[in-house]
Design brief:
This protein is of the alpha/beta class and 867 residues long. The protein is 59% helix and 7% strand. Helix 26 links the parallel strand 1 and strand 2.
């Protein structure tokens, strides 16, 4: 390229002779430009041709090549300007500029301009069928609903019918006519498919628009055989697969192929990141967001996605480091950078800082709309709805509010119009919870039946999820045996692909009706209830005023309670208690049980902390028809102190363990198989742990203890059963210390009992716990435990008999306790026989089920027993 540009103009060529003697630089540049375009290197062609076109060495050929290069690069605006310049110059003789301008107008949806230019081109090239089809497209788009067939008939009087012409007609019919007529033409087009990719994409889009996504996907799959590496085809297949709810593996394969074919395109990595996030694989999502960010640091969406992924992984230090990096990057980028940084500060939880930054960009007309949106979002998240309304209303008044701003304005307006229940709760959504729970519409919206309903966010891989699954199944069987009403379990998301149905087999029993609210569309539910029951509209207005995610979950549960009419709902964990309690009160459910499963979440816990919880719980506590439970005395006491409840207000309903079933799954034979898989010799001692690889479980502390125990007990080995976002970090930690031969990260195991039974001691190093199920299961299998004094751990072990409670949980103390157990064969033998009896007595599942049913029946003396 440098060689071409350095060729001097021949000295013998005077300006007057330029029309007779070709410029060698222009000739050679044109040749090189053609080669670059043929090789798909549009940007390189632009870099070569643009300086020449802007100089005095321009030729019609160079202008044409540059216009084509702009088209190839996707710069439609500059391409159009160049074709217009060619037309004005009077140097075009083949009419090609008319064709290009017509196609450009079609892409801009300027159909009148497209018709004019394409007619002009066809006057010079009447046999060009593709151009005639473009003209047909423009004329169909300009035609009225009743003129489509007439326009198409006029086209057929001059041109043959093709697959593409049928597709164009079908596209317009899909938009304007009954489905049957559009389907008839689409089916004809599909049968006549000419093998061209553009035709397949159009037909598939038509089928998808008509709700026939499976037919669309079948056609795209057929096209993929011919065009296996076409990016546009892959993108369309991915969208259709998503619409059909394709399995996780299928979606990941398609998105991964896009990345493989164009690894330098940040958008493909972002698409993969969103997919991983949808399936709750936050570690993989963060890796993909990071790749997208490395390729394009200007896109705030990539920064935002990475921040959210870090938050889900509880990586607070990484969040602060990324925010610091973003502040340095965006600080020099003017008003646009201020708005982008406001968005990121809000994601990081710095709402006031975000609002201040966004306000600073309001004076710039280019950033005003985005700045209002960012400031409003930050203030709404901070609970400052009155200040938020000042920005939102300004956007509504001057007509600049975009769709997202209009949504926020509707929610904010609805919240502010609701009469405040008291003057003591100025923040939102806190005041909405108080209003919903203490000043709900008087009309009871349901006539309750005699069923009970247990509600949880999911049935994923966790101790709380196992407990709700055991409770739901056991209560359903006991109620059925007693001839009582139906029992339901409702999950907000039970998708297997998201890992939200791991405990589903534990819950499944013929006596239990299970419902997944995940696939339900909240907007459809809202419209349906509003139309069918005018009396519910006051409740719907209150629900709509809540923040979007809360509103969505409340609405789905509200609809569920109205449909099934339970006499009692049992809500599990803070998040479900928040949304489920509002839904139950608004729907008129007579009795509510709210079960906490942990100690109070501090503000530093990004995963569990919610600012409105205190108001919600205090409001809920003022209702006579609500009972609270916790699964540990430590948890109950913690919540009582936080909420100002009198001691004993929260009943302790300890976890239940099916001791016989746990021991059956962790039989001696299964235990030996697990040890064999780990390659353990008979005389080697195994320290194990079963937990999520997340910061709250402190896996790095666990590994540090293992490192010390390895030095203290030569024949010790170590295994962690579980998976999570910190796996890669832990693998590096192990490798750096040369412990790969002694420490195994086994991942998730199902059943897990053989692996627990294979241990000689279990260590739990958590910072925060409710009542740890893993401690109970380990003791069921006769495995002694060493645990930190976290939450209800003290209640789950007989200190010095079935395990050791370490109050000062520094590495040295934990390592000494583990080493003591491994060296004390007598204690281990005593635990093998004594621990199962202790667990059966205090934590037997039948005891838990009986206590739960007793709470249902006798915990509401004003309501009477459930029949």
């Amino acid at each position: 390229m440098s060689e071409i540009l350095s060729v001097p103009k021949p000295a013998s060529v005077r300006p007057a002779q330029r029309s007779q003697v070709p410029d060698l630089t222009a000739v050679r540049a044109a040749q090189q430009g053609k080669r670059l375009l043929q090789s798909g290197m549009a940007q390189e062609a632009i870099g070569l041709l643009q300086p020449l076109v802007e100089s005095d060495r321009v030729t019609p050929e160079l202008r044409t090549l540059l216009a084509k290069a702009y088209e190839k690069a996707g710069d439609r605006h500059r391409a159009r300007l160049m074709w217009l310049e060619i037309a004005r110059s009077g140097q075009a003789t083949d009419g090609l500029h008319h064709l290009r301008l017509g196609r450009n107008a079609l892409l801009r949806r300027d159909f009148a301009e497209a018709e004019r230019q394409l007619k002009a081109y066809l006057a010079t090239a009447p046999q060009d069928l593709a151009a005639a089809e473009h003209l047909l497209e423009a004329q169909l788009c300009l035609a009225g609903p009743g003129e489509l067939r007439e326009v198409y008939a006029r086209y057929l009087s001059q041109r043959p019918e093709t697959c593409y012409s049928l597709t164009l007609l079908a596209t317009e019919l899909v938009r304007r006519r009954p489905k049957a007529e559009a389907m008839e033409v689409l089916d004809r087009a599909r049968e006549a498919w000419d093998g061209l990719l553009r035709t397949a994409l159009r037909i598939a889009q038509g089928y998808k628009a008509l709700g026939e996504a499976e037919t669309a996907l079948a056609l795209l799959d057929s096209a993929a055989v011919r065009y296996p590496n076409d990016i546009s085809l892959l993108r369309n297949r991915f969208r259709v697969q998503q619409a059909l709810g394709a399995p996780k593996a299928t979606l990941l394969e398609t998105a991964g192929r896009l990345v493989l074919l164009e690894p330098e395109q940040p958008g493909h990595h972002a698409r993969l990141a969103r997919l991983y996030a949808n399936f709750k694989d936050w570690s993989a999502a963060s890796a993909s967001w990071q790749k997208a960010l490395d390729l394009d640091r200007n896109c705030v969406t990539y920064w935002r996605g990475l921040l959210i992924s870090y938050a889900r992984m509880e990586r607070n230090a990484a969040i602060e480091a990324l925010l610091k990096e973003a502040r340095q990057f965006f600080r020099t980028r003017g008003p646009e950078g201020m708005v982008d940084m406001a968005v990121l500060e809000n994601v990081g939880g710095y709402n006031d800082r975000a609002a201040s930054l966004a306000a600073g960009a309001l004076t710039n007309p280019r950033t005003r709309v985005r700045a209002r949106e960012a400031a409003s979002a930050a203030l709404l998240d901070a609970g400052q709805y009155v200040r938020a309304w000042s920005y939102l209303s300004a956007g509504l008044d001057d007509g600049t509010a975009n769709i997202e701003t209009q949504r926020m304005a509707a929610r904010c307006s609805a919240a502010l119009r609701l009469p405040a229940p008291t003057e003591g709760v100025p923040r939102f959504p806190d005041t909405l919870f108080e209003r919903a729970l203490l000043h709900a519409p008087e009309r009871t919206l349901i006539e309750p039946g005699n069923g009970v309903m247990l509600v949880s966010s999911s049935l994923g891989a966790g101790g709380a999820e196992r407990q709700v699954a055991l409770s739901a199944a056991g209560i359903a069987r006991m109620r059925a045996a007693a001839g009582r009403g139906p029992t339901f379990f409702v999950g907000q998301d039970l998708s297997p692909d998201r890992g939200r149905a791991v405990m589903l087999p534990v819950a499944q029993t013929p006596e239990l009706q299970i419902e997944d609210l995940g696939p339900i569309d909240a907007q459809t539910v809202f419209r349906s209830i509003s139309a069918a029951d005018p009396g519910a509209r006051e409740a719907l207005r209150l629900i709509a005023a809540l923040p979007p995610k809360l509103s969505r979950d409340v609405l789905k549960l509200y609809d569920c309670f109205r449909r099934h009419r339970p006499a009692l709902v049992h809500l599990w964990q803070d998040g479900v208690i928040s949304t489920g309690s509002v839904a139950a009160v608004l729907a008129g459910v007579p009795r509510i049980v709210a079960s906490m499963r942990n100690v109070v979440a501090p503000e530093s816990d990004r995963r569990r902390y919610r600012s409105y919880l205190a108001t919600m719980y205090r409001s809920l506590g003022k209702r006579d028809n609500v009972r609270f439970t916790a699964n540990s005395a430590a948890g109950a006491t913690d919540y009582e102190k936080w909420l100002g409840f009198e001691p004993g207000r929260i009943a302790v309903l300890r976890n239940g363990v099916e001791v016989a079933n746990v021991r059956k799954r962790g039989s001696e034979e299964a235990r030996r198989a697990a040890r064999q898989e780990l390659g353990l010799a008979d005389d080697e001692l195994l320290m194990g742990g079963t937990f999520r690889l997340a910061p709250a479980k402190r896996p790095h502390l666990w590994l540090s203890v293992a490192e010390q125990v390895a030095a203290m007990v030569p024949k010790s080995r170590f295994v962690i059963v579980g998976d999570g976002v910190l796996r890669a970090d832990l693998e590096r930690w192990i490798a750096e210390r040369g412990l790969s031969g002694r420490i195994t990260l086994a991942g998730r195991k199902s059943p897990v009992e053989p692996w627990i039974g294979a241990m000689d001691v279990m260590l739990l190093a958590s910072e925060v716990e409710g009542l740890p199920n893993v401690l109970l299961e380990a003791q069921c299998l006769g495995v002694p435990v060493v645990t930190t004094d976290a939450g209800g751990s003290r209640e789950a072990v007989l200190d010095g008999i079935t395990g050791i409670l370490v109050e000062n949980d520094v590495i040295e103390n934990l390592a000494a306790a583990v080493a003591r157990v491994l060296r004390d064969q007598t204690m281990r033998a005593r635990t093998r026989t004594g621990a199962p009896a202790f667990i059966e007595q205090r934590f037997g599942v039948q005891r838990m089920l009986s206590d739960t049913l007793s709470l249902y029946d006798k915990g509401f003396p004003k309501q009477g027993d459930l029949e």
